[in-house]
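worker-3 :: picked Sugar kinase of the NBD/HSP70 family, may contain an N-terminal HTH domain
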Amino acid sequence: MTHTRTRLERGRNALGPALELVHTGRAPTRAVLTTALGVTRATAGAVASELQTLGLITVDSRPGGATGSHGRPSHRLAIDPGGPVALAAQVHADGFRAALVGLGGHLHATTPACTTVAADPKEILGQVVAAGADLLRETGRHCVGAGLAVPSAVAEPEGTALNPLHLAWPAGAPVRDLFNDCLAEAGVDAPGYCGNDVNLAALAEHRHGAGQGAAHLLCVATGHRGVGGALVLDGRLHSGSAGLALEVGHLTVDPAGRPCHCGSRGCLDVETDPLALLEAAGRTPGPEGSLLDQTRELLRTEYATDPAVRGAAHAVIDRLGLGLAGLVNILNPDRIILGGLHRWLLEADPDRLRGLIEAGSLWGRSGTVPLAACTLDYNSLVGAAELAWQPVLDDPLAALPA
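worker-3 :: tokens ->
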């Protein structure tokens, strides 16, 4: 026992990095963990054992090797399916969604609600937190924290929603404080964090989805309304001096285009979002389902057969390609991922969008632009959970109850 504790004390600083490696799927075995951490096999074993004791991971009791592998078999590491969770919440133009998200970005439970979002942010935040609290009671899971994704830049360190353009909320609403108040009122004894929905989607995709391995990841995506962007540099969100960086939705792509909420005209936000596609196709938004769901169904069922839908999609793709080419020239990312409607436009006509970016960017003219679709369902929710998991990833022993 003494030897084990001594090894663990030497490896305590490795607990967080070890957990992050398992969390992001980069350490499937103890042998890989040992190499990645640069520690001895004994120290890696003690670290893995402690993470298992904390209820965060499982360690296969019988080592095994993958088919075709060489060398000594190693114990397999995995996220504990019965471990703690984060409460994740998202508010968007059509309502909200709450979920419980474990390590590894695994969704254990989720509950949607489409509703009219009140002008008082406290009202909708109270509803989404209540839904999440119900999930916690139903599952009996321990909650490490709570994260909230909102369709607005979130100013730091204040935690205020600076520009909730597609909601009736007042500019500068103190959403993080309100979120924590709602958690306390619902009996959820956990800290609350808040971030922009596309920033959080990019973080989730970088750790668990289409952005894994990218050093300079650019994410551009539509929400239920509007367009957002995010940049992940060496695993960290680039948020600027006050949390407001990468408001790509307000990049002009048509100076004579639609008026934008920001005061300009022809921004990506109003030229390439779900409402823009519906209007270009001559379709009136229906009462059932979100605008995002309606555009996905339109592309799935009518893109190949209806010239008006195909022409509308091409017009939106052309505006998006112009904007992405400009961003490539400015940011020089090593990967671009697209979410929401932009993901489905890429899937509908990948050659058109890639060609426009390559023709309009210096980098594109000298090589292939690495462009991919986001792969995670509910990536903003998963990203919101990442905010809540971060203190655990930083120091598991300090963040979890003894």
